[in-house]
C-alpha cells in the first residue's frame, strides 16, 4: 500500500522549535512526529510513503533515509514549487499513488491519535466507494467544519462550516483513505481537498465517515502540542504503562511521566503529571516539572519550576528559574538563574 | 563640655498610610520596622550615640505611649550613655509643632545644639561633619542636603545655596517646577536660639489668622514651610552637602533599598554583623543579615541585600535576594523570594515564588492603566502562600491565604 503525508510548509506555528528542525522531525513524546505516523503506516503494510513538502530541508532527507532502511519502506519527497493546498499534492504524486489499484492513505502531518489504519482500510474496502474520512467528535463543533451523514449510514451527506446550530459534532480528523480514482478529480494546481474535492464526492455519495476511537489532537502549535502530549501519555498509561516512569518512583508525581533512559534526574525532584524528558537531559536537584516537554540534551538546573512549557534541545534553565504560560525555548537557549518566563518564545 | 540633644520626629499612626500594608500591624509602627536587622530609628540612635556630649534623645510623635516602651527599654540597654524618652503630642502638631510644644523639655539641661532627625530616612548620618560645619558659620541651622536626579527633585524640599559659603538662599517644599537638584535630607542641627524663631513663626501664623476670618488658629507648625523658609530668607540657614548614602523610607517597598544601604554600610563599619560564609553553611552572596535565632538550611542561597528576622525558618534549596524576611516567617523548600518583604508569621509553600521589581528610585511611581503598580512585593502579617504559587508585584494584606497565582494586584 501507499500513503501520502501532507507536511506542507515551514511550520511557523511551532516556532521557535521549527527554526531548528523541520516540523515532522520535532520530537513528540520523545519520537519525531512523523515517526509516529510512519510506524503506524508500516504496521498496516504500507511500503511507499510520499512526503508532500513545499521546501526540502536536507536534514530530513538523511534522517528519513535511515527510516527507509529500518522499516524497509520507500520514502519519496514530493516537492511543490508553489504551495498546492491539501489536494494539489495528490496530483503531484499521481505516479506513485496511482501505480496500482489499491487504495492509499493521506494524512496531515500534525495529527496525533492511535492511527487505526487497519480498521480504516477494512472499513473502506467494505463500503467500496471512493473515499473515507476519519472523523472525531469534538465538544464545541461550532468552531470547526462538521460532517453530516445520511441518516443511519456512514455515507457523508454534507459539510457545514462553523455551524451556528447543532447539526453534528463530528469533524474531519485529517486522515483519509482513497481509491486511486480520486486522482481523476484533482488537477495539478492549488486546491483544497476539504472545500473543493470532498463536497463533490459527497454529492455523488462516494465519501464515508469512519469514527475514530480514543484521543485526537492537531499538535501544530505549542498549546496543542502540550495538550496532545497529555493525551498521548494518558493513553500510554492505559495501554503500555511499562513505557512510562514507574509511579512508585520517588520523583514521579501524578503519573504520565515519560523519561528517556539516558537522562539523569537529581534528588528531591517532583515530576509530573504529563511530562516528557528526552535523551541526555540533565535534571538537577529539587526541580519541579509538570505538563511540560524537555527535549534532548536540555539541562534543568536545581530548584527550577516548569509548567505548560517546552524546553528546546540543549537549552539550559538556570537555578530557581520559573517557566510557565506556554513558554517555548528553542535550540540552545540559556535562561539565567532566577529568571521568570511567562508565555515566552525564545 | 558642650551638651547636645537630639529629637527624632516619629510621626503618628494616621500618617502611616503610605507604609501599608506593613503599618497595619499596629504593634510595629513604621519607625520600628526592621531594616538591616534593626528598627529604622535604631540606626538614628546608633549614629547619635557616637556624638560626644549627647545626653538625651527625645522621640516626638503622636503614637500611643505603649508603642515605644519595648524599643526604649531595649535601646536604653544598648546605648547606656543616652537617655531615651518618648514625648507624645496630644494631636498631630505638624513637623515643628511638637518641637515647639515640648520646647521647655528640649531645652532642659541647657544644650548648645539640637539635632532634629526625621524618622523616615536611611542615611549614613554624617552628624560629626555637620557639627564641624555648623561651627564655621553664623547661621542658626545646618541642614543636611544631598543631590538627587533632576526628575525627582520636586518630590522633596529643594534648596538653592551659595556655592562658596553653602548659605541657603531659597527653600521650597515640593515645588511644582524644577528649582534645584539639591534637596533636604530631613536632618538638621539647630542652635537653641531656634526656639525664638519658632516663637516668631507661631506669632506670624497667629497674626495671619487674626487677619483672615476663614482661618482657625491651631498649634500646627510646619518645620519646612513655616520655619526653614523664613530662616533662609534671613540668611540663617546653611546646608552641609553629603555624597554619602541617603534615602527616604516613605512607602513600605522603600524599606528594601534602605535595607540594602545599611547592609552595605555594615560591610564597611561593622562586618561582624553580617552573615559569614562557612563551608557547611548556606551560600552567601553579598551582604546578608541573619538574626541569631533564625534558621537557614545549608542548601539555601541567600543574598545580596537580605535581612532575616528572629525565628524565621528558611528551608532547603531556597533562594532569597534583595528582600526582608520578618519574624517567624517560614520559607519552605525550593522557593524563591526576590525584591520582597515577607511579613511576620507568614508561610511560603514549596516551589513558590514571591517576586517584586526593583526600582532605582521609589519616588517614580509606575502606573499602568491608571493603577499604581506596586514594585516591591509585600506580604503583610500572617499571609500564607500555597505550594508552587507565584505572587508577583503584589501587595498582600494581613491574614490572606493565597491559593492561586497573582500578578500586579493589591490583594485585600
TrEMBL record, chain A:
Keyword Transferase: yes
EC number: 2.7.7.13
SUPFAM superfamilies found in the cross-reference section: Nucleotide-diphospho-sugar transferases
One annotated GO molecular function: GTP binding
Pathway this chain belongs to: Nucleotide-sugar biosynthesis; GDP-alpha-D-mannose biosynthesis; GDP-alpha-D-mannose from alpha-D-mannose 1-phosphate (GTP route): step 1/1
CDD domains given in the database record: M1P_guanylylT_B_like_N
Domain of life: Eukaryota
Listed Pfam families: GMPPB_C (PF25087), NTP_transferase (PF00483)
Coiled-coil ranges per UniProt: none
Keyword terms of this UniProt record: Cell cycle, GTP-binding, Nucleotide-binding, Transferase
The reaction(s) this protein catalyses: alpha-D-mannose 1-phosphate + GTP + H(+) = GDP-alpha-D-mannose + diphosphate
Residues of the Nucleotidyl transferase domain: 2-232
Domain Mannose-1-phosphate guanyltransferase C-terminal: 255-341
GO biological process: GDP-mannose biosynthetic process
Group of enzyme by EC: transferase
Protein family membership: Belongs to the transferase hexapeptide repeat family.
Name used for this protein in its record: mannose-1-phosphate guanylyltransferase
UniProtKB/TrEMBL annotation, chain B:
Domain of life according to the entry: Eukaryota
Keyword Transmembrane helix: no
Catalyses which reaction(s): alpha-D-mannose 1-phosphate + GTP + H(+) = GDP-alpha-D-mannose + diphosphate
Statement: the UniProt record of this protein carries the keyword Nucleotide-binding: no
GO function term, MF aspect, one: mannose-1-phosphate guanylyltransferase (GTP) activity
EC number: 2.7.7.13
Mannose-1-phosphate guanyltransferase C-terminal domain residues: 284-409
Pathway(s) the chain acts in: Nucleotide-sugar biosynthesis; GDP-alpha-D-mannose biosynthesis; GDP-alpha-D-mannose from alpha-D-mannose 1-phosphate (GTP route): step 1/1
Cross-referenced PROSITE patterns: HEXAPEP_TRANSFERASES
Keywords of the record: Transferase
Residue ranges annotated for the Nucleotidyl transferase domain, each copy included: 5-208
InterPro entries linked to this entry: GMPPB_C, Hexapep_transf_CS, Mannose-1P_guanyltransferase, NTP_transferase_dom, Nucleotide-diphossugar_trans, Trimer_LpxA-like_sf
CDD domains per the UniProt record, alphabetical: M1P_guanylylT_A_like_N
Family that this chain belongs to: Belongs to the transferase hexapeptide repeat family.
Protein name: mannose-1-phosphate guanylyltransferase
Organism: Funneliformis caledonium
UniProt lineage: Eukaryota, Fungi, Fungi incertae sedis, Mucoromycota, Glomeromycotina
Amino acid at each position: 500500500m501507499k500513503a501520502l503525508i501532507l507536511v506542507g510548509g515551514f511550520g511557523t506555528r511551532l516556532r521557535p522549535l521549527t527554526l531548528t528542525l523541520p516540523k515532522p522531525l520535532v520530537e513528540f513524546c520523545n519520537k519525531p512526529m512523523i515517526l509516529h505516523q510512519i510506524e503506524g503506516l508500516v504496521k498496516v503494510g504500507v511500503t511507499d510513503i510520499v512526503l508532500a513538502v513545499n521546501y526540502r530541508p536536507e536534514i530530513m532527507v538523511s534522517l528519513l533515509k535511515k527510516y527507509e532502511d529500518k522499516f524497509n519502506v520507500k520514502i519519496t519527497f514530493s516537492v511543490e514549487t508553489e504551495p498546492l493546498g491539501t489536494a494539489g499534492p495528490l496530483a503531484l504524486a499521481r505516479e506513485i499513488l496511482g501505480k496500482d489499484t489499491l487504495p492509499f492513505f493521506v494524512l496531515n502531518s500534525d495529527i496525533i491519535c492511535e492511527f487505526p489504519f487497519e480498521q480504516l482500510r477494512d472499513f473502506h474496502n467494505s463500503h467500496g466507494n471512493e473515499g473515507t474520512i476519519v472523523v472525531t467528535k469534538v465538544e464545541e463543533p461550532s468552531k470547526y467544519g462538521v460532517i453530516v451523514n445520511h441518516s443511519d449510514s456512514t455515507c457523508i451527506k454534507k459539510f457545514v462550516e462553523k455551524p451556528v446550530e447543532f447539526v453534528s459534532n463530528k469533524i474531519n480528523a485529517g486522515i483519509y483513505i482513497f481509491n486511486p480514482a480520486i486522482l481523476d478529480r484533482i488537477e495539478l494546481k492549488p486546491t483544497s481537498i476539504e472545500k473543493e474535492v470532498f463536497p463533490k464526492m459527497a454529492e455523488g455519495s462516494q465519501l464515508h465517515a469512519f469514527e475514530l476511537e480514543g484521543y485526537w489532537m492537531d499538535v501544530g502549535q505549542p498549546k496543542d502540542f502540550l495538550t496532545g502530549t497529555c493525551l498521548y501519555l494518558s493513553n500510554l498509561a492505559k495501554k503500555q504503562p511499562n513505557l512510562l516512569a514507574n509511579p512508585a518512583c520517588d520523583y514521579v508525581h501524578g503519573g504520565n511521566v515519560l523519561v528517556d533512559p539516558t537522562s539523569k534526574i537529581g534528588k528531591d525532584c517532583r515530576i509530573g503529571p504529563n511530562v516528557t524528558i528526552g535523551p541526555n537531559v540533565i535534571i538537577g536537584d529539587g526541580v519541579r516539572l509538570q505538563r511540560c516537554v524537555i527535549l534532548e540534551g536540555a539541562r534543568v538546573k536545581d530548584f527550577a519550576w516548569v509548567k505548560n512549557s517546552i524546553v528546546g534541545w540543549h537549552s539550559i534553565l538556570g537555578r530557581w528559574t520559573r517557566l510557565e504560560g506556554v513558554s517555548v525555548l528553542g535550540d540552545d537557549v540559556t535562561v539565567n538563574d532566577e529568571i521568570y518566563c511567562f508565555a515566552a518564545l525564545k | 563640655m558642650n551638651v547636645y540633644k537630639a529629637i527624632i520626629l516619629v510621626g503618628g499612626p494616621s500618617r502611616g498610610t503610605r507604609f501599608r500594608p506593613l503599618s497595619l500591624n499596629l504593634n510595629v509602627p513604621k519607625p520600628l520596622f526592621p531594616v538591616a536587622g534593626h528598627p529604622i530609628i535604631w540606626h538614628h540612635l546608633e549614629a547619635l550615640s557616637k556624638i560626644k556630649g549627647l545626653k538625651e534623645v527625645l522621640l516626638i510623635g503622636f503614637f500611643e505611649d505603649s508603642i515605644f516602651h519595648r524599643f526604649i527599654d531595649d535601646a536604653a540597654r544598648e546605648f547606656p550613655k543616652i537617655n531615651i524618652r518618648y514625648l507624645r503630642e496630644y494631636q498631630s502638631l505638624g513637623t515643628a509643632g511638637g518641637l515647639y510644644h515640648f520646647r521647655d523639655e528640649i531645652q532642659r539641661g541647657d544644650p548648645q545644639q539640637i539635632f532634629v532627625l526625621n524618622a523616615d530616612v536611611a542615611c549614613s548620618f554624617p552628624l560629626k561633619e555637620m557639627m564641624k560645619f555648623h561651627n564655621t558659620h553664623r547661621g542658626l541651622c545646618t541642614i543636611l542636603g544631598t543631590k538627587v536626579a533632576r526628575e525627582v527633585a520636586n518630590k522633596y524640599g529643594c534648596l538653592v545655596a551659595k556655592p562658596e559659603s553653602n548659605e541657603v538662599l531659597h527653600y521650597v517644599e515640593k515645588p511644582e517646577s524644577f528649582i534645584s537638584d539639591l534637596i533636604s535630607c530631613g536632618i538638621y542641627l539647630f542652635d537653641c536660639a531656634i526656639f525664638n524663631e519658632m516663637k516668631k513663626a507661631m506669632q506670624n501664623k497667629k497674626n495671619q489668622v487674626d487677619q483672615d476670618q476663614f482661618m482657625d488658629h491651631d498649634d500646627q507648625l510646619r518645620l519646612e514651610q513655616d520655619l526653614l523658609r523664613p530662616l533662609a530668607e534671613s540668611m540663617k540657614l546653611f546646608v552641609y552637602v553629603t555624597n554619602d548614602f541617603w534615602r527616604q523610607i516613605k512607602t513600605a517597598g522603600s524599606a528594601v533599598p534602605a535595607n540594602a544601604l545599611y547592609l552595605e554600610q555594615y560591610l564597611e563599619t561593622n562586618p561582624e554583623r553580617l552573615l559569614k560564609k562557612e563551608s557547611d553553611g548556606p551560600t552567601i552572596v553579598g551582604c546578608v543579615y541573619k538574626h541569631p535565632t533564625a534558621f537557614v538550611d545549608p542548601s539555601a542561597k541567600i543574598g545580596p541585600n537580605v535581612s532575616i528576622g528572629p525565628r524565621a525558618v528558611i528551608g532547603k534549596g531556597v533562594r532569597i535576594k534583595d528582600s526582608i524576611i520578618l519574624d517567624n516567617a517560614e520559607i519552605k523548600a525550593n522557593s524563591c523570594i526576590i525584591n520582597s518583604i515577607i511579613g511576620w508569621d507568614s508561610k511560603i509553600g514549596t516551589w513558590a515564588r514571591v517576586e517584586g521589581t526593583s526600582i532605582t528610585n521609589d519616588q517614580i511611581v509606575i502606573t499602568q492603566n491608571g493603577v499604581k503598580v506596586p514594585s516591591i512585593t509585600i506580604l503583610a502579617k500572617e499571609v500564607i502562600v500555597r505550594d508552587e504559587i507565584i505572587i508577583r508585584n503584589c501587595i498582600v494584606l494581613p491574614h490572606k491565604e493565597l491559593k492561586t497565582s497573582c500578578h500586579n494586584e493589591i490583594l485585600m
